[in-house]
Design a protein that fits this description.
mainly alpha; 9% strand; 5 helices; flat
Length: 262
C-alpha cells in the first residue's frame, strides 16, 4: 500500500473515534442530569375558620369609659427626732479601788524527825564493830607487799628507749635536711619567689652511699621543676656519712620529699 492511502485510513479512524467519544460524553451527561433531578414533594395546608374569626379585632363599643379617680394617700407626719443629751466637757473620774492582795499564809514548820532510840547494849556493839573494821584496814595496809623493783626498772628502761628513739628521729631529720641542702646546691631552676613547689621521689643508694636511681612518685604539678629536682638528686653524687645508730638498710631505698625552698 502507498503512503497516501495509509494516511487516509488513519484520518478516518481518528474521526470515528472522536465522534464515538463525544457521543459517549453526551450520554453520560444526560444520564447524570436525569438521575440527580427529583420530583417536588406535595405540600399540605389546613385552614381553620374559627381561629381566623377569633383573631379578627372586635368593633369598638359606643359607650364612653368613665375614668376611675383614685384618692391621694395621706402621708404620715414625720416623728420629731429626740435631741441627744449634752455631755459635760469635764468628767470626774472616780478613783478605782485596788483589790487587796491576800497575804500568803505562813508555811507550817516541819517537825524535827525523831531519832530512833538505841539501846545502850546495841550502841556499844556498833562502836566495837567500827573499831574492828578500822583495825583490819590498817593491818591490811601494813601487810601489803612492797612494789616489785623489776616493774620500776622496766618503766625506766621504756622511758630511756623512748628518749633515745626521739633523739634518733631528730638526728635523722637533721641528716635529711643536709641531704636536701646538697641537692639544692646542684639544682638549676629559677626561683621567682611566687611559689614553692614540692615533689616526692624514691631514691635508691649503693653501699658506698652513692645515688643509683631517682624515681618520681608524686609530681609538684610543674614538669620543669620535677625534672630539675630529679637531675639535682643524680648530680649530688653521694649522700653524707650516716649518723651513729642509723643502718644503711634504712636508706637503701627511701622516699625523699624535696621543695624549692625550705
Amino acid at each position: 500500500m502507498s503512503m497516501p492511502s495509509r494516511r487516509e485510513e488513519h484520518r478516518a479512524l481518528s474521526f470515528v473515534l472522536a465522534v464515538a467519544m463525544h457521543g459517549l460524553i453526551a450520554a453520560m451527561l444526560y444520564i447524570g442530569m436525569q438521575w440527580q433531578t427529583r420530583p417536588a414533594a406535595p405540600v399540605e395546608v389546613e385552614l381553620w375558620a374559627g381561629q381566623l374569626e377569633a383573631s379578627l379585632p372586635s368593633e369598638p363599643s359606643s359607650k364612653p369609659i368613665k375614668p376611675v379617680v383614685v384618692p391621694p394617700k395621706a402621708e404620715p407626719e414625720p416623728e420629731p427626732t429626740p435631741t441627744p443629751p449634752i455631755k459635760p466637757d469635764i468628767v470626774e473620774e472616780k478613783p478605782k479601788t485596788k483589790p487587796q492582795a491576800e497575804k500568803p499564809k505562813p508555811a507550817p514548820k516541819p517537825e524535827p524527825a525523831k531519832k530512833p532510840e538505841v539501846a545502850p547494849g546495841k550502841l556499844l556493839a556498833q562502836i566495837e564493830a567500827g573499831q574492828a573494821r578500822q583495825e583490819s584496814k590498817t593491818a591490811g595496809k601494813l601487810n601489803s607487799k612492797p612494789l616489785d623493783a623489776s616493774v620500776a626498772l622496766n618503766a625506766l628502761e621504756k622511758r630511756q628507749q623512748a628518749a633515745e628513739a626521739s633523739a634518733a628521729a631528730e638526728e635523722f631529720k637533721a641528716y635529711l635536711a643536709l641531704v636536701r641542702n646538697k641537692i639544692r646546691r646542684n639544682m638549676t631552676y629559677p626561683d621567682d619567689g611566687a611559689s614553692n613547689p614540692e615533689a616526692e621521689f624514691e631514691v635508691r643508694l649503693l653501699p658506698d652511699m652513692s645515688v643509683l636511681e631517682a624515681k618520681l612518685l608524686r609530681s609538684s604539678g610543674n614538669a620543669a621543676f620535677d625534672e630539675a629536682a630529679r637531675r639535682a638528686i643524680l648530680r649530688a653524687g653521694e649522700y653524707p656519712p650516716l649518723p651513729s645508730g642509723v643502718e644503711f638498710r634504712t636508706l637503701r631505698q627511701h622516699k625523699l620529699k624535696f621543695r624549692l625552698n625550705e
